[in-house]
Design brief:
binds magnesium ion, six-stranded mixed β-sheet, 217 residues, binds adenosine-5'-diphosphate, alpha/beta, 26% strand, four-stranded antiparallel β-sheet, 10 strands, 34% helix
Length: 217
Amino acid sequence: MIKLNNITKIYNPKKSNEFEALHNVSCEIDDGELVAVIGKSGAGKSTLLHILACIDNYQEGEYSIDGTLVKNLSERQYAKIRNEKIGMVMQDFALTALENVMIPLNFSKKRIKNKKKKALNALKSVGIAELAKKPCNKLSGGQKQRVAIARAIVNEPSMILADEPTGALDSKTSAEIMELFLSLNDQGRTVIIVTHDQKIAEQCDRIIEISDGEIIS
Ligand code: ADP
Ligand code: MG
């Protein structure tokens, strides 16, 4: 379970371009929930997701994952949490599909046997094992998104975070990608999706709406 308690995030604190992107944000997300985060552009959705993913810091408040407070941890402790608990669906497609999915395995401190096999299994579970050797820049938008999801799940994290995963897709492909998130959620994983798409949001258990850095519903 994850808990945010009065999180405030300020970009460029104490500088002339200081900007408060999140203000006193509190929420709890239970294990296995499927949550949509919606709100206008600039509302603070990505900022919230980055904090949840432990890839950005914050000034005030507390964030805990499964009872562990994530603040002032060492870089090694952060890396451990990111690697073991969190799968972030990211867009980075310079490599082949297989190489892309192997990245989190290469970062892991634990020696992981059969990295290639694990990565292939992840590609299989998103339905594109046959594209493993293809450079990602030769794949369609939906196929790229599948690679990004395979990469997020290859370490079998308990929580999957995605920032506008269907933003660049047509509605049929969006629906297929949403099916994948639904099936990951059915397997018991927590899934948090930032989205502009009403169709995606309404398939989630819960919708968190952000406006000007605050949760409004
Ligand atoms: P959303 O994802 O909802 O569109 P963001 O979380 O990306 O919004 O951004 C929230 C606000 O914080 C925006 O006004 C944005 O301009 C600002 N912001 C985001 N990243 C930075 C940054 N690195 N430095 C300064 N301001 C930022
Ligand atoms: Mg954003």
